[in-house]
């Protein structure tokens, strides 16, 4: 089972780290304690809508963009077989879309080659879902002089 607060926290952390900002900088800008923001990013606390809006404002992001990203991540997880069900100790027949990464309940799921989803089953009722956009290795680099 994927917890919404964990997906929200992952999305916030990804945005913050993508801007190369510290927890202290964002917490000050959002007027929230550093510890509480850290708990939100780790999925331990669920922010109110007002606090979520303040954090998004501090990150220079629209609340709708963040919620759309979270919604897309959850929707993608719902489409993948076995992602939103508890991991059992019994061997499971892998589907072509699912690769088991380790014996600790971590699975790498890819949809169309442009998005990668990693699911870590922390307990029977708790899972961490991380998404990353896969960038092609053969990108053209343009340098202007």
Structural description of this entry:
There is one protein chain. The chain is of the alpha+beta class. Helix content is 41%, strand content 17%. It has a four-stranded antiparallel beta sheet. Strand 2 and strand 3 form a beta hairpin. The protein is globular and about 40 Å long. About 12% of the residues have low confidence.
Count of separate DSSP helical elements: 5
- Share in β-strands: 15-25%
Q: Total strand count, please? A: 4
The averaged pLDDT comes out at 75
What is the H/E order?
A: HHHHHEEEE
Lateral strand order in the biggest sheet: 1-2-3-4
Main sheet makeup: 4 strands, antiparallel
Termini gap: 51 Å
- Helix- and strand-based class? alpha+beta
Overall 3D shape: globular
**Cα Rg:** 17 Å
């Amino acid at each position: 089972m994927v917890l919404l607060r964990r997906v929200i926290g992952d999305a916030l952390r990804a945005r913050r780290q993508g801007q190369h900002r510290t927890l202290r900088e964002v917490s000050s800008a959002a007027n929230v304690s550093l510890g509480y923001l850290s708990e939100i990013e780790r999925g331990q606390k669920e922010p109110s809508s007002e606090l979520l809006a303040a954090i998004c404002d501090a990150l220079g992001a629209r609340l709708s963009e963040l919620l759309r990203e979270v919604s897309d991540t959850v929707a993608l997880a719902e489409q993948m077989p076995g992602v939103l069900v508890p991991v059992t100790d019994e061997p499971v027949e892998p589907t072509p879309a699912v690769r088991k990464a380790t014996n600790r309940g971590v699975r790498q799921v890819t949809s169309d080659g442009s998005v990668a989803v990693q699911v870590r089953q922390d307990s029977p009722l708790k899972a961490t879902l991380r998404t990353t956009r896969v960038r092609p290795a053969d990108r053209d680099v343009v340098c202007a002089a």
